[in-house]
């Protein structure tokens, strides 16, 4: 059995990791940590775990518990860190990674440029020397590298949806990435479990709003990963929106198509002459990249992704529509922000790292209604 510890087990993402590990056929939870609920039973905090997980939370305050975490690591094969930015990098060391694997759900190791991290997150990075050892844990894209690493940077929810939705067309050079615009909607659980006025029921219900306009911290993460796919540095427009639902991410992405002659890019002149790939050609590209993927579903022609049909699952639904009038393609994707956008992708990463069945513990169908 894979011995797992969870730091930050009482936040929404951490609690989902606990739930998934509790049903995992090849893993066991050795300990669960919480700074806010140290000493309390997990099932007292989350009643859905009553008579399923019998654990009391240990104190995992990373400011006070660095030495204790090193001791706890000796009892685990993998540690999940569902913590705010800066916490994981404050205690992870090469010595710790020599004895256990770490799957971090924060942004501490997602960006390869320390200066970019410190600019967007407004904090000093605590372990820049480990960034080169981390693998960006987008399972369907980096599976081979995930198998060989000790440190996973689990992607964010907006980023997972945004990247996977556009990746095939960016990778094949079929869209002009200079024109790429991403609008994304998120459920309120994406903001975490902490008490915030902006997330109160009366503030959120019957309302939708854009936020973090031009400043959202997932922007450089999306740019870096899609830039790798494009083979060049990429700048895009990303605008998130908060909508009154518990879970879900819906990304709608727009870009101008780039024409090809069957052997390569023709360029803007051909695009202006409307010598553009057809929708059927683009769908074939998505099937090329995702046709064999269990957790990415390319929907039939005419079907649009809906958050309600991926809720509670590790699935990502994607589809496209070409607007021949404007020469643009609209790319759409949906996932559960607490699952494929956080916890179930973390467990999927664990499965890959330990060489077990990739869907172990996360093979459930989406919940509906």
Q: Radius of gyration in whole Å, from Cα?
A: 21 Å
Which strand order spans the largest sheet, edge to edge or round the barrel? Answer: 8-9-7-10-15-14-13
CATH topology of the largest domain: Dihydrodipicolinate Reductase, domain 2
What's the multimeric state? single chain
Average predicted confidence as pLDDT: 93
Number of helices: 13
Characterization of the model:
The chain is an alpha/beta fold. 30% of the residues lie in helices and 20% in strands. It has two domains: 2-154 and 342-353, Rossmann fold; 158-335, 2-Layer Sandwich (Dihydrodipicolinate Reductase, domain 2), CATH 3.30.360. It has helices at residues 12-22, 42-45, 66-73, 88-91, 94-99, 114-121, 139-148, 157-171, 201-204, 219-230, 268-272, 279-290, 343-353, and strands at 2-7, 27-33, 78-81, 101-104, 134-136, 151-153, 181-186, 209-210, 237-242, 249-256, 259-260, 265-267, 296-298, 316-323, 328-335. Helix 1 (12-22) packs across helix 13 (343-353) and helix 8 runs parallel beside helix 10. It is globular and about 65 Å long. The two termini are 34 Å apart. The relative contact order is 0.14.
